[in-house]
Amino acid sequence: HGDIGQKKGLDKMARGEQARVDTRQEELRTLGEEYKKKFGMKFLVSAQGKSGDELLSVLKSRIANSEDKEI
Fold it and tell me: 21 falls in which pLDDT band (50, 70, 90)?
């Protein structure tokens, strides 16, 4: 599965999910990279039916978690 905000190399389902986040794509990608650096893994969440704003809200709340809470 692609990283949040990724455009290239995605399967059909992932492309559909990513299409819904276009308005926040750059912010999601940047914060997703920060998440990956902080926790050593990519940010995962069920994106089905969620807007870019909803995903960004979840990512912002989770990146504030401690490593113990997130893992």
Answer: low
